Structures are given as structure tokens and as C-alpha cells.
Amino acid sequence: MKRVFLPVSFLITIILTIHIYERSFDKRNSYEKFLLNKADRFAAAEPVINKEAEAPDYPGMAAFREYIMTVDPGLGYVPKERLWNAYQQTLTAEKDDLRDDPILEWQGTGANMGGRTRALMFDPNDENFKKVWSGGVTGGLWYNDDITNTNIEWTPIGDFWSNLAISCITYDPNNTQIFYVGTGEAQTARFIYRESSGLGAGIFRSVDGGETWEQIPSTTGFKYITEIAVRDEDGTSAIYAGVASGTYMGEDHESQPSDGLYRSVDGGETWEQVLPEIEGYSDEIYVPADIEITANGRIFIGTMENLDLHGGATILYSDSGMEGSWTIYDDYNIVISNDGGINVPARTNVASAPSDPDIVYAQFAGGYLTQSGYYNYKGRYIIKSTDGGNSWQQKNIPDESWAERAWHNFILRVDPSNPEALFTGGQDLWKSSNSGASWSHISDWSLMYSGGGDAYVHADQHNIKFQPGSSTTAVFTSDGGIFLTTTANLAYPVFIERNQGYNTLQFYSGAINPSAGSRLYIGGLQDNGTLYYKGFPLSINDMIDGGDGAFCFYDENEQAIFITSVYYNSYTVWVNGGWVNGFGQGGTFISPADYDYKENILYANGVSITGSQANKINRCSGIPYYINDELVNMGTNTSVAFSHVKYSDYSPEGTSTLFLGTQSGKLYKIEHAESSPQATELTGPDFPTANISCIAVGSSEDILTVTFSNYGVSSVWLTTDGGETWTEKETNLPDIPIRWALFHPENNGQVMLATETGIWVTNMMMEDETTWYPASEGMANV
Known about the structure:
The chain is mainly beta. Among the domains are: 505-683, 7 Propeller (Methylamine Dehydrogenase, Chain H), CATH 2.130.10.10; 692-782. Helices cover 9% and strands 36% of the residues. It has four helices and 54 strands. Strands 1-2-3-4 form a four-stranded antiparallel beta sheet, with no helix packed on it. Strands 5-6-7-8 form a four-stranded antiparallel beta sheet, with no helix packed on it. A four-stranded antiparallel beta sheet has the order 9-10-13-14, with no helix packed on it. The longest helix is centred in the N-terminal third of the chain and has 38 residues, at 8-45.
């Protein structure tokens, strides 16, 4: 018998390799359990979706998807504060860019539709009061030089604004060139079924009427700014900032030094917290949800619940604004607390009558614990005072369901010249002309599906501002941007959408018509369905599919065919612009998918967020007319959803080759996906345990780039031998989510990345040393 002796070093290498693989396997399996536990809890709280019914949006679904994609796996939450550092690195890289080749220049397609907007202000330096400023919670800071002229478009303010969740804006009445902007969406940063759209970065200031901006250093500890107001106090400009703490992507973010109302009389250099402690809870300060200054200078504060659910549904007022001067009205805190069902005192809005400082209205929300362990909040009461807040009388509410998501959409405003006329907003707008004795339902969000109309205002109301000196012209903000009326004094005002150029839409995906030189695109959007771009700015009349639009595709062989989708793999096939077929099943909220245009087969993730239908792809063949829709096991070894699906253009004739990535960082190649799938795992030994966001194929299936979208991981990897070996290629990129990757079709060395701070590009992907450069001229973040 012949004996073979292996070197000790070789045996050690084998043992170490097995040990590393086992540790990686255990870590990845553990992370999959973490994701599934999160999903189980979320799924129990999320409302059940009726695919057939019209609905304004499902913000909780979108937020959970974003959490999975960006959570730092080592921390268990999303470290959003790293984004500011990433932006600074991006600016430095742009300044240091000495390349000879031209920087890419981008042109926007234009849109006359808007996204969620809370901040709103008429420019005090415009003598005609037609210039308006607005801020989106994900869409940046904008201004419009004439809100009354539908031909005037919105202009974005550049720099970092599109990365900030803008919550409020105001100006200094003693120096109208000074503006203040607050950041952080506190309204949604509660323990509810969804997460906040954005953590704040304090307060920003302009001293030249909005031309330039700077962050106020003393406010960096303010995680969420609910409202800012500036009051003239005998010639001194006193700034009041409502500061809150909140929950963002799995982590509590507590404002420092505490929640409360902060007052500054030196332009924001120093601050003093002036509100009292919540009665019965030492060391807990009331949290302002709303700041209202009456015509005679009295300051009213409407509160919201803190992270411990204390202190909501309370009104405080003061004439001096100083510590120790506040009168507390908490009757409705007590009323709601004693309610058997909806017993969490919550968000409070206050609105004073500009024409009579003694008349003040307020509305309260109450919360309740759902069976799943999350809280929901709805509008409960409206009250009125005719003596400046000394006493209050309860009024009627529009109806029991007027504000069923009051943590999110809740606004109250009084007509400037008629103290008995007031507006309230929840999902839609309501108006009363008799101090709340009766109400009229004056807007209807569902008209978006039939081209709009005089009563159309997008769902979820957030702000109302009257033009100074007018009771007829007012601007309204919602989840669909900006709306104007010049007939606010009428019982049923006529509304006009004023989103021309207000490009704050959120796209999940897009597809370009493959015909040479074509300017036809389709895209799936959060809360705005699927839009069909035909060369003109997008509007609601370009909506060809409703709900939350998801992945969409053109058929590269037959350009007359394109495919759209909404949540949970609900697909529609169109031929020559007409509906032909519907299909699809299973999957996640926005299921990754790809289309084999040669064999007319669509492949989409079939695994749910809770792991049911594990390892399955929704395979839909026979497109467009004779569709066979089935869930097919790919033979992979994963318990979580597929996070990316990529069809290979190099598939052998008559077959489909796929590359699949998972939420835990596993990578698979699937051959013969069209018939009997054969899976080969290509997961790199050093791949992070994180969400694979994209798999890009170069000039052959041997050349692949894989990207990850989580914070805190190595985000870019390259193989040139079909997955046998992998090289990390993140190099000088900031620690930011990478959303997508694309090879140049004729040059494997050039790769573009879509990131949280815009487009980055390299021409050295195939070299040992890879350097990335920003290339986002003309566009914001992707």
C-alpha cells in the first residue's frame, strides 16, 4: 500500500479554511435569523395590503425595505450620522479630481409631481409675497419665485440638502435676510409600524436670504427639530426651536442635552431649554410638536409624547418665553389617558386666529397599542379658546377617521381674517366656517387616479400657509408636494397642483426603450405608481399603473412590449401602450426582478420577508399573451429573500442563466432557470454578511461586480474568473450604501456606482489599484 504524506503547512491551511468557512456560515445563518425575527415583528404590525384597492401609499413597507438594505450588520441599526462624513469626503474628492477625461454631465427628465413636504414659508423679502420656500423630507430645499404662476418652476438649492430630512423653515422678523431650517422628521420617529424618513442634523442658517447656508454648530446634538419660530422681543430676535428625540432604523436617537423648547438670543450660538418637566415625571421635559405665536406675541406649545410615551396632548403658553413662566393645560392628557382604548396622549397642534389673538384652536391625537406591539395614533379632539388660552371649549371633529395616522399627517390652520374659519388635515383636507360646529370634506386624494380635478390634493396633509395679507391664497403641503388655492375663502376651494419642476419623486426602478435615440422611459415610484415618460415633464396624467410602482422592463427584441409592477410581484404586460395581461405572486414589497427578453420569461424574488417560500423564484413565462406563472425552487441554501436578480445576456440559446444575491450576502449562479434550475454558490469567502444590492456582468460571465448596500461593510467586489476568487474594490469610497453597479458595455475597466452621495466612477476596475471619482454633475443622489 502506497502512503501519501502531506506537508503540515498544507494540512494547517485546509483546517484554517474549513474553520473560516464554518465561522462565515454560522455568522450568515445567525444574521438571517436576525432579519427574519425583525420581519416577523414588522409583518404582524403592517396593515394587510389589498392589491385590488387603491391606496395612497405603504410608507411602512418602504421604510422596512430601506432598513434591511442599509442597517449596519454589526450594530443592528442604521448609522445615518455617517452620511454627513460621507458627503464631506465626496466634496473633497470632487475638489481633488485632476482627471483629464471629462466629468459626466447629467440632464434631468423633469417632473411636475412632488414628494412628501413639511417645510413651507412665504419669502418675506418678496414685496408681492409670491416667492415660496419648501423643503422635502427626502427631496431637498427648493424655492419658487411666483407660486401663483403655473409656468414658474421650482429651483433646488444645491449642496447637501437632498440628503437632509427638512422639517421646518422660518425667518427672523428683525432681519428678514436671516432664514433658519430645521432637520429631522420627528413626526414619524415614533414606535410605530414604520420608521422615520430621516434623522436630523440640527439647524441650518442663511444670512443672505437663502443664497448660502451653514450648519449652526451648537445644534448638532438636536436630532429632530419639530418647529422653529423667531419672536421679536423688544428688538431682540429670540429663536425658539422644538427639539425631540426619536427612533430611527432600529435605534433610539436622543437629542442632546435633552428634549424641549430651546431659546437663543444670540443667533443660535448658545441655547437655553425653557420648558418645565412633565408633571409626574422628573427629568423628562415636555416635547414640542408645534410652536404658535399669536398676533399679540403669546407663545403656545402643543406637545407630543416622548420616547417613554409621556407628556403628549398638552398645551403650554407663556408671554415671556422664559423658564418658569409657562402655564400648563393638560386636561386632554388626562382625558385620553383615562380612555379605555386609545389611551396614549400624543401629538398636539395649535392654531391662533391672526385677526383676533384671543381666539386659539388646538387638536389632539391619541395613541393605542396594537396587538403586534406597535402604536398607532389618530385625531381625537378639537378645542377652542376665546380668551387667549385661559379656558377651552370642545368642538366637533370632522369624523372619526379624519386623521387615522395623526403621527404622520396632522395640521390645523385658521383663516387670517375670519376667526371662525379653520382648516384641518389628516389624509384629506376639511374646512369649517363656524368654529368647528360642522365640517366639509374639501379634498380627495383618490382623484389622482383619474387625472386630478378641482378637489384633488395628494394624500397626507402636513402644512398650510396663507399668503401674507390674503385670506384667499394659501399653499398646502402633502405627501405629494405642493398645492395652491386662490379661493380659500370659499366653502369648497379649488386646488391647483404646483409641482412644476419640483422633482422630489422617489424612484425604485426605471427602464429605457431600447430603440436607438428613444426618449421613452418608464419608472416605478414610491407612492406614485408607474410613470411613462414621453419627452415632457412627468405629471399624474403619465401614471399608467397605481400604488407603489416597482420593477419595470422593456422587451429589447420587441419594443412594443413593456412590463410594469406594483408591490408583491403584481405585474402588468403592455403592448403598444395597451393592457394585455396581469400575473405574479409572492415576494417582498418591492421584489427584485429581471427579464429574459430572448425567451420572454420574467424572474422575480418569490420569498416573503418572513422567509416563507424560501429559495423560490417567481418564474413567469409565455409573455405577453400565454403566461405560465409559477413559484420555482432554485436549489439555493438560504432562508431569507433574494435581494437581487440578474439575467445574463450570455445565456446559451434557449436557456436562462441567472445570478441571485440574498439579503445575507450569499451569491448564486443558476443555470437552466427556464426549466430545471441548477445552482452553484459563488459567495466569496470574505463577502460581508450584508444585503447584496446589485450583480453586474461585464464582457462575459467570468467578470462580475457585486455591491452591498449596508453601512459598515466592504461594499464592492470583483471577480474575473467566474467567482473562483474575489477582490475587494471599495478602496477610497466613503462608508455609504451602494445601490447599483454598471459596467461600460465596451470597457470592463469602467464601472459606475449609484450611491447615497451620487454617482461614482472608475476607469481602473481591472487594475490592482482602483480609484473612484464622483461624477454627479447635474444630478442629486441616487
